[in-house]
Specification:
heterodimer; A: 222 residues; alpha+beta; 60s Ribosomal Protein L30, Chain: A; five-stranded mixed beta sheet; two-stranded antiparallel sheet; 8 strands; extended; B: 397 residues; mainly beta; Double Stranded RNA Binding Domain; Neuraminidase; 2 domains; four-stranded antiparallel beta sheet; 4 helices; 29 strands; 14% helix
């Protein structure tokens, strides 16, 4: 276990150094976890003690008492704190896809999908062609394709499905001559429904891919 | 390895000895015999209020059923405290232990007593009453761009002492513990798009781990805590990648056109199980964590298998079967493949350290609740104390 701890901490240190996120390691608001109980008792549990040993069962049977929070018995944190710094300053590897967003210009081109499908329907292909035309006419524009799902699917499955939808559109756009470096994808799974209802009318609006423009003249001027 | 083997032998000998002493079959033997484990009848007397409720919950989750003394095969007699005390006797009124639990609070004392009852009453089974879970919780607000805000929470395994870890007002999801350490990994939209962070629970510091273009999700830490498996789409399709726990040296493990999701590790750290889907439908696959050709895991003809989780003892893989609509069921299948057993309604199972209990999500009236499901008796207990829609439980182990 000691070895794991060493590896873990070395890695954490390496992560901090490599990524240079400038994490402050001093916690600001220490919050006890679990919270001290209302009666003022400490959260630490002592060792159990015998209260009269019955026949045949001594202390050597290996039925040892749980001695509170220790590695192995729980990964139980005793003191946990919220983040100590806002994450807004975390550097991203590809900056073109950050900054002011333009969600309006290509809004009418939102692509809708059939249940559990990531292939673009024939009737939706004209929208993708229009997006490709726009991007070719605005070479500075960077595009984020966001894939969404309805709630019928497990979360794990829907995250992958949303990404497949976004990637299918990205592939189409590349096929239509848009530089691959100008398009990124994001999957929202079921986390941003366009309609919060629980019927087909809502679901059909939620199975979609939206287009967001960043940077260049597209984001700034519009 | 040899050392590990010796450790296992030691445990096996100990449980065998305990088993002979108590004249009971072990839990493992029941499971190996292909029989559903049976609930162990136990009676409680002398307890009231919070202590009784805590004991009852802990024991019911662990595979006991609380009955009157005349029908019980184990009798627990004690008092609320302070401190909480307990004397456990078998049918022949032989005392298995008699202990007091000083320190902590009543709830913690009751948990410690429950863990001792589990160890003594179900040979070979570990108590889990003092473990923790992490999960995501939707407080019911919409954020910028209409996001359903979700934050990462921690709580005791029974939902008590919930603690809001993140306060980002955005989508935070897919929490995963680093085994044996107070570090949690999760995906956050805080930087504008999804990135994976590690969060040191002792200091509160967060460090970026993965922020490639496209998908950064599904973090799963290797059992020794040194490596991380992720789903990245930087190759043009969601694939499984494995690298150092800080996110460096990521190597692509699957190179399929299909979408991979929800990786989990075998306890020896050699294999990964994940879900793979293309054009509708989903199945489970297993691959060497260093790369190689993925092989389908036989799930007894069950289709739509997603969200696998490998039990810490290496014997089982729990998963969600997706039906059409919202009919999700949790199954378990032997880790080598075979017949899958339906365990009941739920999704996104996460194994407890006892390789018996699963934390699952259940959909109820538009919301989602956490529930603890016994993978062998199929007994389920809802966590009622947490308000808000919950998902993606991850059991600290």
């Amino acid at each position: 276990m000691k070895q794991f701890l060493t590896v873990g901490w070395t890695s954490m240190l390496a992560a901090a150094l490599l990524l240079g996120a400038g994490c402050k390691t001093k916690p600001k608001n220490l919050t006890a976890f679990p919270a001290t109980d209302a009666r003022g008792g400490s959260a630490e549990l002592g060792s159990a003690r015998p209260i009269g040993v019955g026949p045949g069962v001594g202390s050597g049977t290996g039925l040892g008492p749980g001695a509170g929070f220790g590695p192995g018995t729980t990964a139980g944190p005793t003191n946990i704190t919220p983040p100590t710094e806002p994450m807004d300053n975390v550097p991203l590897p590809t900056d073109p896809f950050t900054g002011p967003e333009d969600r309006e210009t290509l809004k009418s081109n939102t692509v809708y999908f059939d249940f559990d499908k990531s292939t673009v329907k024939k009737g939706e292909q004209a929208k993708i062609a229009a997006v490709a035309d726009y991007l070719k006419a605005h070479q500075d524009a960077k595009l984020q394709v966001e894939g969404h799902c309805d709630e019928r699917g497990t979360e794990g499955y829907n995250l992958a499905l949303g990404e497949r939808r976004a990637l299918a559109i990205r592939e189409s756009l590349i096929g239509l001559g848009v530089p691959a470096a100008n398009i990124t994808t994001v999957t929202l799974g079921e986390s941003r429904p366009a309609d919060v209802g629980h019927d087909e009318s809502a679901w059909s609006k939620n199975r979609r891919a939206e287009f967001v423009l960043f940077g260049g003249t597209a984001g700034a001027v519009r | 390895m040899e050392k590990a083997l010796r450790g296992w032998l030691g445990i096996a000998m100990t449980s065998l000895a305990a088993c002979v002493a108590l004249g009971q079959t072990t839990f493992d033997a029941i499971v190996d015999g292909g029989k559903a484990a049976e609930l162990v009848p136990i009676s409680l007397s002398g307890y009231t209020g919070e202590v009784e409720a805590t004991l009852r919950f802990d024991l019911e989750v662990a595979g006991f059923t609380v009955v009157s003394p005349d029908r019980a095969s184990l009798v627990l007699v004690g008092k609320n405290g302070s401190p909480v005390e307990g004397t456990l006797q078998d049918k022949g009124r032989r005392t298995l232990f008699a202990r007091a639990y000083p320190g902590g609070n009543a709830r913690l004392q009751a948990h410690a007593l429950a863990d001792d009852v589990v160890t003594a009453g179900i040979p070979g089974q570990k108590g889990i009453a003092r473990t923790k879970i992490a999960f995501k919780l939707e407080p019911g607000r919409r954020g910028a761009r209409g996001d359903v805000i979700s934050e990462i929470y921690l709580s005791d395994y029974d939902g008590a002492n919930p603690f809001q870890l993140t306060q980002d007002g955005t989508i935070n999801r897919s929490p995963a513990w680093q085994p044996g350490l107070k570090t949690l990994y999760y995906t956050s939209f805080k930087p504008g798009r999804p990135c994976i962070f590690s969060h040191d629970l002792a200091s509160g510091a967060r460090s970026p781990v993965s922020n490639y273009n496209g998908m950064n999700d599904g973090a799963a830490l290797s059992p020794d805590g040194s490596r991380i498996a992720l789903v990245l789409s930087r190759s043009g399709s969601p694939d499984i990648w494995v690298g150092s726990v800080n996110g460096s040296g990521m190597r692509q493990v699957t190179k399929t056109r299909e979408a991979e999701s929800s990786p989990c590790w075998s306890p020896d750290g050699r294999m990964l199980c994940f879900a793979s889907s293309e054009g509708g439908g989903s199945r489970l696959m297993v691959v060497d964590a260093n790369g190689g050709t993925p092989k389908a895991l036989a799930t007894g003809g069950i289709r739509g298998a997603t969200e696998p989780d490998w039990s810490p003892d290496g014997r089982w893989i729990a998963f969600t079967r997706m039906g059409r609509g919202e009919n999700f069921e949790v199954y378990r299948v032997p880790a080598g493949g075979g017949e899958a057993v339906a365990l009941g309604a739920g999704e996104d199972p996460s194994w407890a350290p006892n390789s018996r209990t699963l934390a699952v999500v259940r959909r109820k009236g538009g919301g989602r609740k956490l529930s603890l499901l016994d993978a062998f008796t199929k007994q389920a207990k809802d966590l009622k104390t947490i308000s808000g829609s919950c998902g993606q439980p991850s059991w600290a182990r």
